[in-house]
Amino acid sequence: MQEPGEKQSSVLSKIAMLAGVGVAAGAVVAGLALPAVGGAGFGLISATNEINLAPEELVEPPPAEVTVVEDAKGKPIARFYEQYREVVELDQIAPIMKTAIISIEDYRFYEHGPIDIEGTIRALARNLQAGGVAQGGSSITQQYVKQVLLNAADTEADKNKALEASYARKLKELRYAMAVEKKYTKDQILAKYLNIAYFGAGAYGVEAAAKRFFGVRADALSLAQAATLAGAVQDPNATDPNLGKKQRERLLKRRNVVLDRMAELGKVSKEDADKAKATGLGYKGTKLPGGCESSKYPYFCIYVRNEILKNPDFGKKAADRVKFLNRGGLTIKTTLDAGMQAAADKAIKKWVYASDNPVAAEALVQPGTGAIKAMAASRPYGGDADKHEMAYNVVADAAHGGGIGFQAGSTFKTFTLITALSKGMKVNDGFNVGAGYTAPGYASFKNCAGESIGDPNHTVTNDEGAPGWRTLQTGTWGSVNTFFMTLEQRVGLCDVVKTAKSLGIHRSDGNKLQEYETFTLGINEMDPVTVANAYAAIGARGKYCAPMAISQITDRDGKVTTYKPKCRQVLDPEVADAAADVLSGVFTKGTMRGVGGIGRDAAGKTGTTDSYATAWFAGFTPDLAGAVSIGDPRGSQSHKLNGVTIGGQYYGSVVGASISGPIWKDTMLAALKGIPPTKFTPINTSRFGGCGQSCQPAPPPDEDDDGPGDVWQDDNGRGGWGNHGRENDTGRNGRGPFG
């Protein structure tokens, strides 16, 4: 076998001889003969003036490889790729595969240099006889060069240039081939060629092709299978078995040509070749893994994909980020916890069916890190409406493949509660409120731009109980609209907005937050990831961490980059403790008491929008936070949650404690199973008063619900409103939430 550098010694003399033949014929050097293009008029060049036989270094960007996405424990959950390819070493390829490809493509591969002189002389003779370029004489090395140039092409123009039928292109290809043969051994070149070649059916490289065609690895290919793949590289589109019967018939014929050639060369016996020819094609069409549509966790997958495609950390330009993801051969380790994801999936499927018009969505986030542990929805992801599929990421914001989101309702009252505590109010501080609230004047509320936005002509109603004295505790437990409108007026709308923003609150659609006086009632459209993450910060005693889905990326060369949580202290820890104490009473004395707690320290807030357009629950423990939304993606304002059947259960009206709260509870019970419970840090009673929610008296019976009248629920937490009325508009757009 020739070593690198030894192959060039006799090449020039042979080329010179060949050039003489070509010039005498009025044509180009035979070794530069093109693949068949047919017809006359092919380009001719002067062998003496144009041929530059000096080797030229080939820039070899790594071929596109599959990027694998893993869960937190390293189990693959998705794949991204522009070309499905898995690069393998030569010893990971069956010897019979190497024999087959050499036999049919370049049987003297180990004997000649960068160009097969004898083969190209034959090609020249046939070209001259045909009166045009009828046959090519490319060696495997030349074919490898062409594939490198093709794969490096970023534009269609570059791709066409790599494939153009010109002698100039063949000359350049030969110069590159000479450099390649000087740089690598024959074995290395063969391995590179087998890893870069396209075999058809979307499979690039022999490993992907073996799996796609036959469901085996490249090292397990049989004689018939190896001959099939060797035959496919000549014209992979014409013999693509995935395209239909005609293509399979062509591939079968081509396979038999390869087998005959192997027998002719003595590489296999005629008996073995005939036996292999007697078998069927054996194409299995094994589905190539990849894309979020085929992932078991599509919504999390979409989040990860968008995290990379829209983050400048992974490439300055959008095109660079696409290439990084789809061609980089990365291993992306994520924060996804398969057990917690299973818990969320199971809980949602129990309460909401995929065929229901409303959609439930849930996100789980770890306090103190921002790690997203699960993203689930009641409908599968995809573009087929007939299969009840979602075409966007209903769990996340628009920046991560989501939509406009749903109004978050009274989950936003928590931000007003926190603002009041941070300004020195005690948990038992309060005031009298009426059944309705009207701003005293236009200057009673100011947004963060200093504009007066209080509307004295707009009344927020409160039909859930008699007017009276409400405290931070009882007002929160009963989710009293008029109490929180008054409280927001006293602590300042802008300060409430700032509190929300400090906890990562932003509109799902990416637009600016609406800063109206009804901000505390949750008029802004949100997504579960954002809301869950905000509540996680309270569970982490005021430490906000940006949502995090990627923990580590390993590139194709094995370089590991670890991503750490991006956190900052945004709340006084004792304020967060006091808020958690108040919100924990929601399970025992408030809107979730009919559903109950989870057997460990937990806190949360229900959210129901005006006229029951959407329903939420957001809650947390020190170990895990979650938010659940439910609404109709056809338009929550035009398709409200009144008189609907969801999960096989009829609801007169859906509130936060009807479905979202029970989903959260079922999820947490399963997700936290086996995890030792962490207790909340006790409230500082000397600073915030009270003795903790555990010793507070229960509110009057008609103050325990999330809307008008009393709530009833069965043992499963399903229920509806008795004696309910309807709230007036509490939002500037007629969509003000309550409860």
From TrEMBL:
Record family assignment: In the C-terminal section; belongs to the transpeptidase family.
Origin superkingdom: Bacteria
GO molecular function: penicillin binding; peptidoglycan glycosyltransferase activity; serine-type D-Ala-D-Ala carboxypeptidase activity
GO biological process: cell wall organization; peptidoglycan biosynthetic process; proteolysis; regulation of cell shape
Stretches for region Disordered: 684-739
Gene Ontology annotations for the cellular component aspect, listed alphabetically: outer membrane-bounded periplasmic space
Protein name per UniProt: Membrane peptidoglycan carboxypeptidase
Span of domain Glycosyl transferase family: 74-262
InterPro entries according to UniProt: Beta-lactam/transpept-like (IPR012338), Glyco_trans_51 (IPR001264), Glycosyltr_51/Transpeptidase (IPR050396), Lysozyme-like_dom_sf (IPR023346), PBP_transglycosylase (IPR036950), PCN-bd_Tpept (IPR001460)
Stored Gene3D superfamilies: Biosynthetic peptidoglycan transglycosylase-like, DD-peptidase/beta-lactamase superfamily
Penicillin-binding protein transpeptidase domain mapped to chain residues: 364-634
Catalysed reactions, as listed in the record: [GlcNAc-(1->4)-Mur2Ac(oyl-L-Ala-gamma-D-Glu-L-Lys-D-Ala-D-Ala)](n)-di-trans,octa-cis-undecaprenyl diphosphate + beta-D-GlcNAc-(1->4)-Mur2Ac(oyl-L-Ala-gamma-D-Glu-L-Lys-D-Ala-D-Ala)-di-trans,octa-cis-undecaprenyl diphosphate = [GlcNAc-(1->4)-Mur2Ac(oyl-L-Ala-gamma-D-Glu-L-Lys-D-Ala-D-Ala)](n+1)-di-trans,octa-cis-undecaprenyl diphosphate + di-trans,octa-cis-undecaprenyl diphosphate + H(+); Preferential cleavage: (Ac)2-L-Lys-D-Ala-|-D-Ala. Also transpeptidation of peptidyl-alanyl moieties that are N-acyl substituents of D-alanine
Keywords: Carboxypeptidase, Cell shape, Cell wall biogenesis/degradation, Glycosyltransferase, Hydrolase, Membrane, Multifunctional enzyme, Peptidoglycan synthesis, Protease, Transferase, Transmembrane, Transmembrane helix
Positions of transmembrane segments: 12-34
